[in-house]
Amino acid sequence: MRFFCSKDCPDTCAIEAEIVNGKPVFKGVAESWQKTGFVCSKFKVFAEREIGTSVRSYRRIDGNNHYFDNDEAAVGAMAEMLEQYRHKKILYLKGSGSLGYNMGYWDRLMSGFEHAYKIKGNVCDVTGEDAHEADFGTPLNPPVENIADCDTAILFGKNAAVVSQHLFAYLKELKKHGLKIIYIDPIRTKTADIADRYIPIRPACDGLLAAALMTSLGLEDGHDTERYLSRAGISAEDFEYLKSSISSGRTAFIQGFGIQRNPNGMNIVRLINRLAVKSGNERNLFYGHASKRYWKGLGVKFNNSVPINEVAQRLAESEFDLFVNVAANPAMTFADAKNWMKGIERTPTIVVDVQSNRTSENCDLFIRTGGIFAQQDLMASYFFEHAHSRDRLTNELSDTDIVSRLSTLLNIPVNMAEPESAIPEGRQFRDEFVRPLFPEEHGRFSLMSMSHHAYLNSQTLPQIAEGLKKAYINPADAAELSVADGDVLKISTETGCYTAYAEISDRVSPKVIMSWKNIPMLEGCINDAIPPILTDSGNGLVYYGIPADVAKVL
């Protein structure tokens, strides 16, 4: 049967799937721009972990898990708990465990509670979306085939080898046919290894580089090129290489989500947008677009909301009477993770997910769902143009099964139906001068996190995490701190700390400390040290370039 992956990845891969002798078998499906399809490394691990798991639904009483005999009893218990808190303050979070259209029926159900609070903002791509809406009226990518018509592709923090493996394969194929690839990032990632030139840059300085290029290329006045390049740490040779590449042919500008997770993230994206347009490359500018753009929305409206930068603290202060968490792991993946942990310990909590995780460790009720493999759904890629639909691969309890049953038990209509088609709005550039915002000069380390090719950001994989509990540090910084490989480092901010084994690497820029995303470290996790600070769009969280102190644990 035709299947697709709706996890937290921009590719939205089509897959041929079947169950053979009780085990899943998957085969990649080619897209219009790709001669052969393949199943990425992340999906393979994920599928093996999710299908046929022994995890069951349970209620926790006095620290002990009491397992339900069947799904009907588990969903019934959830209905009873929701009814108990129907007229009280409920915090509701739906995460990226699956991004399919039909997961939106959870929103429709929970909006039926008068005092339910949704979270305003998100941790993914909202800052960049706001930048594209400000400049073009909508976030919308052109066809990816446009890159094939370019002479050069510049990737601003787009670590495609890890976060968009099908784009990475496409870029490698185009490189064989003459595409020049330039990769810009504070960290020399796997994607940098296929680049014709890797250009290191200081965190949060991509906008300064874009502004300097506009002035130096004669596209826009008003920018202090020398000052901008000095702050960004860009060498004269790298700058001339960029100028020559842009001026000598068609250039694709590919923006990673990471650049918009800086304090000045919206400003960065807008400046790159201007550089692309003013250099005649609007049709070659890529960021992303909405994964439900081909269908009309469900028209959900909540009466209440809580800003994303306040939610962990307010939950920890016991402001909410009940927390309902669907397909999210905020105690691992959100900023201020320790306050999420405190809040869950102090607040009656329902978790609906495929696997247990750091968030569900202290929940009161865990409902196990079959996840994407049990869910009939549809979704569009949020990088490519394609969209896919699927039937359920397994007969396990699905999210829509749960929502439908709760709708009946709680008498809250959700009205599930086939979605109406919609036509995405086209881009139209709005020419407005954008003055660069300088990142803070704090003189400390800049804390960065990075996705890993072996796991999805919404997962927790203990067997993989064992070899990844590391903090990567530049050789010059290691020498200054008398740090050797394998030493234990403590990385601290005003919000919290974690510890990890040191690994000295010249892939990390000076005064940058980097650890892998969303896995347990020796003590704590990286998001224990990430404060809940808003980006300049006002609705996204800052995850990169956090001022941090690094010390060797003696």
Describe what this molecule looks like in 3D.
With 554 residues, the chain is α/β, with parallel strands linked by helices. It folds into 4 domains: 2-48, no CATH class; 54-122 and 296-410, 3-Layer(aba) Sandwich (Rossmann fold), CATH 3.40.50.740; 125-287, 3-Layer(aba) Sandwich (Dimethylsulfoxide Reductase, domain 2); 445-552, Beta Barrel (Barwin-like endoglucanases). It has 16 helices and 24 strands. The strands form 5 sheets. Strands 5-4-16-15-14-6-7-13 form an 8-stranded mixed sheet, with helices on one face. A 6-stranded mixed barrel has the order 19-23-20-22-21-24. A 5-stranded parallel sheet has the order 10-9-8-11-12, covered by helices on one side. A hairpin with a 6-residue loop joins β17 (377-380) and β18. α2 (71-84) packs across α14, α4 (126-136) packs across α10 and α7 packs parallel to α10 (265-278). The longest helix is centred in the first third of the chain and has 14 residues, at 71-84. The mean pLDDT is 95. Keywords: Iron, Iron-sulfur, Metal-binding.
Number of domains: 4
Total E-strand runs: 24
The strands making up the biggest β-sheet line up spatially as: 5-4-16-15-14-6-7-13
* Name of the top-level CATH class of the largest domain: Alpha Beta
Helix content: 25-40%
Alpha carbon gyration radius: 23 Å
Shape: globular
Distance from N terminus to C terminus (CA atoms, Å) equals: 56 Å
Write the layout of secondary structure elements.
Elements: E1 2-4, E2 14-20, E3 23-28, H1 41-50, E4 58-61, E5 64-67, H2 71-84, E6 90-94, H3 104-110, E7 116-120, H4 126-136, E8 152-156, H5 160-163, H6 165-176, E9 180-185, E10 197-200, H7 206-216, H8 225-232, H9 236-247, E11 251-255, H10 265-278, E12 285-286, E13 304-307, H11 311-316, E14 322-326, H12 330-333, H13 337-346, E15 349-353, E16 365-368, E17 377-380, E18 387-390, H14 399-410, E19 445-450, H15 462-465, E20 470-473, H16 475-480, E21 488-492, E22 497-504, E23 512-516, E24 546-552
Parallel strand pairs: 6-7, 6-14, 7-13, 8-9, 8-11, 9-10, 11-12, 14-15, 15-16, 19-23, 20-22
Antiparallel strand pairs: 1-2, 2-3, 4-5, 4-16, 17-18, 19-24, 20-23, 21-22, 21-24
Helix pairs in contact: 2-14, 4-10, 7-8, 7-10
Pfam family, one: Molybdopterin
Family: Belongs to the prokaryotic molybdopterin-containing oxidoreductase family.
Keywords: Iron, Iron-sulfur, Metal-binding
